[in-house]
Amino acid sequence: xxxxxxxxxxxxxxxxxxxxxxxxxxxxxxxxxxxxxxxxxxxxxxxxxxxxxxxxxxxxxxxxxxxxxxxxxxxxxxxxxxxxxxxxxxxxxxxxxxxxxxxxxxxxxxxxxxxxxxxxxxxxxxxxxxxxxxxxxxxxxxxxxxxxxxxxxxxxxxxxxxxxxxxxxxxxxxxxxxxxxxxxxxxxxxxxxxxxxxxxxxxxxxxxxxxxxxxxxxxxxxxxxxxxxxxxxxxxxxxxxxxxxxxxxxxxxxxxxxxxxxxxxxxxxxxxxxxxxxxxxxxxxxxxxxxxxxxxxxxxxxxxxxxxxxxxxxxxxxxxxxxxxxxxxxxxxxxxxxxxxxxxxxxxxxxxxxxxxxxxxxxxxxxxxxxxxxxxxxxxxxxxxxxxxxxxxxxxxxxxxxxxxxxxxxxxxxxxxxxxxxxxxxxxxxxxxxxxxxxxxxxxxxxxxxxxxxxxxxxxxxxxxxxxxxxxxxxxxxxxxxxxxxxxxxxxxxxxxxxxxxxxxxxxxxxxxxxxxx
Length: 518
Known about the structure:
By secondary structure, the protein is an alpha+beta fold. It is 53% helix and 18% strand. About 5% of the residues have low confidence.
């Protein structure tokens, strides 16, 4: 099983005199020389350096106190999460899965070998507690896919686990006063790749053709605009690209069961699908509809875990709010068991989905769409009209759904209608989000309104699902000879909560529809 640690460090170009004197550094009572360690690390990547492009590093290292496999994810400048696995001859499957959204079907192989002589010193406080480790690394880099080599020396300061990041500012000030400057490369691997790269040669111009063709072949799609978004197509593609990036970046977090990661990934999936549906005047449906079908499938698979999480939290909170006199039987234990069992099963299924060919093909399809977008004629237009029209169309459809729901009597049919309105609310919100950089205030206002309406309708749908779950739990409890009284109390409270939500909907919706500038 892989272990994760947070690494907070700073790197400096080493001066000719090596490590400056750090005596008297505030908070440092002593500096302990830990001697020299010899590190030998082989870095792995695809042939086209997909991990490096994403600022990820994957290595197998021997020597030092943490020999093994290391996978590092960027968190912020100078901050990375390092996931470690025991030393082995081949890449551990736990780590291979965490880079699968980046690597897809490409092979991972050794690209760079770094051999370092590391002189280590510990900065300690008056109690002997470690504040930071500072090292002088003499590095020999060898490119394994070519003949390039490089040598350099650098100084690295790494904060101790649980240390105050402000301490690194004090060390930084001392090192800068001594003439050191931060490293120009974010990592040793990045520097090694840059300094061992083969020389580039300017290609000779190709000879002109003897004769131009009678007519240039027509492209299947229009060229993708580049630079600052200008056209309607620019804005839609920028939003699609952001959501594609979110899917890829959240993949490792979902696999590691990081809190809220499934929810965020599901939202990115829904935003993509909604964008394809809302902006059919910009992107050709022949390309986006098949991708949208796969996005719907992925959102459904992710929903198994997310819906379980939301329901468990809602029911646990509701149970906490009940007076003890209304809690009969082992309700809490049964609820806890239901939640934990459901989560384990759902999470296992989700990780299987992320390893599936269908999911990886979906990521490839999104990449292909962004590389050669299926832009329609309206994509070249200015964003004001094209985007506003699409957002307005979604808002009009939402208005019809809300009106229909309010005209129905309370009950199952109204619940279904309100759920449809909730889904359209999300789609309208996402369309407004995509249009916000172009439409500014009106789109921002609509996003805010849709969030409010989404919260109201979401609470209603959660109540519907909570009542369904309570009926199921009550039946199981009754069959086991337990009291089902408390489940009935919670069911009644959920009914009342839904009634309050439905009564609040007209007053919430009226000003939204009246003030929306679309």
